[in-house]
Amino acid sequence: MAAFSFRGACQIDGVQLAPAAAFTGPRVFLRTHEHCHSHRVLLAIFTPIGAYSFLRSPLDDLAGSTVDLADLVGRPDELLRLTERLNITVKHHQRIGLVEQFLLARVQGSSPDLLMTAAVAWLERGTTSKRIDDLARYIGLSQSALERRFRRVIGVSPKKFYSLARLKRAVRLQATGADLTTVAHASGYFDQSHFIKEFRQMTGSAPSAFFRHTT
């Protein structure tokens, strides 16, 4: 995810002040954000493959961290001008257009990794439980080669990505009003206890408590 703050500031976990133009690598655990001084920010959410195409560099070192986007792509003057233009622009759709121009200029000429695109699609498809050795056979790589390449392009291991994909599916299903037992099975968990355990590990609270505080 790329975040472009054009007014105020954002503090992460009560400690780190987010850069004006920031990139956050894939995360497995939740964290807190405190929006200070009338903070205003525009977020660009990448597809699993999109961030690698944008940065053109391995993502595994960036997993779970937030860094200054200028340190990754250069162009500090261009990013400063973009932030200034976002601040003075009135219409939201115009701000979105400015950020889109910046992002698209960077990805031109960059080709996605088709094998990892297929791997991501396989992990996200269906609701049955997935095994990484089955994915390796499907892709046609050894499991060790798959792990290395997946970490480099996606930023996390296939197993962690699959856990994130299941959690996102569970959150979407719960928003429709489905009960937690239905959510667990439809999201690919073995049973409700497995769902609760993994949910607690990734969010810090049980599903019932988490959804009670977010609705």
Description:
There is one protein chain. The protein is globular and about 50 Å long. It is of the alpha+beta class. Helix 8 packs antiparallel against helix 9 (180-186). It contains eleven helices and five strands, in the order ββββαβαααααααααα. The model has no long low-confidence stretch (mean pLDDT 89). Strands 1, 2, 3, 4 and 5 form a five-stranded antiparallel sheet that branches. It folds into two domains: 2-107, no CATH class; 114-214, Orthogonal Bundle (Arc Repressor Mutant, subunit A). A hairpin with a 3-residue loop joins strand 1 (2-12) and strand 2.
How many helices? The count is: 11
Q: What structural category do the secondary elements indicate?
A: alpha+beta
Beta-strand residue fraction: 5-15%
The total beta strand count reads 5
Radius of gyration: 19 Å
Task: Indicate the mean pLDDT.
Answer: 89
Instruction: Categorize the overall geometry.
Output: globular
Compute the number of structural domains: 2
Low-confidence region ranges: none
Largest sheet: 5 strands, antiparallel
Instruction: Calculate the terminal CA-CA distance, rounded to whole Å.
Output: 24 Å
Helix share, percent: 40-55%
What is the element string, with H for helices and E for strands? EEEEHEHHHHHHHHHH
